[in-house]
Amino acid sequence: MDVGPVDVVILSFPGNEFNGKIAPAIVDLVERGVVRLLDVLFVTKDADGNVAALALADLGEDLGTVIAVSGDIPGGLLDDEDMADVADSLEPNSSAAMLVWENTWAATVTSAIADSGGQVVDYTRIPAEVVRALLTEA
Question: The domain containing residue 78 runs over which residues?
């Protein structure tokens, strides 16, 4: 079975301002088979520091589209400990989304590496902001 590498991405939203613009981009990736959503966790912290996890149904129509396009999200990878870790890093009156996705685009090359006796010994992802800054300087 071909399986691509998996990323865990945490997005923060200061002021609890989630405008839904991320949802269409995720839908596009899922529809094109670039990624497969494996789990999603949303955490919010109010102005008094109270923390809550939000159910997917409570996140609005845009994110509902992500879930509908993604089909069955296996889930079960993120738990209360993950929620607590994310909540600890949140400022009051902010929220975060934790997404786990498989990079399905890389599944074939991952299998080819294994089939040729190779193995990944290190993997580093450079954030887009760092690349942008380096390109601007160059």
Answer: 6-137
Residue type, 16: N
Give the sign of the dihedral formed by CA 103, CA 57, CA 63, CA 80. Answer: negative
**Rounded CA gap, 128 and 98, in Å?**
18
Question: Lowest-confidence range among 4-8, 28-32, 64-68, 128-132?
Answer: 64-68
Contact 49, 13 (CB under 8 A): no
pTM: 0.78
Amino acid at 130: V
In a domain, 114, yes or no: yes
Phi, then psi, of 96 in degrees rounded to 5: -145, 150
Task: Give the C-alpha separation, 45 to 103, whole Å.
Answer: 30
In a domain, 32, yes or no: yes
- Say how many C-beta atoms besides its own lie within 10 A of residue 100's C-beta: 21
Query: How many domains is the chain built from?
Result: 1
Q: What angle do CA 113, 115, 119 make, to 5 degrees?
A: 40
What Rg, from alpha-carbon coordinates, does the chain have? 17
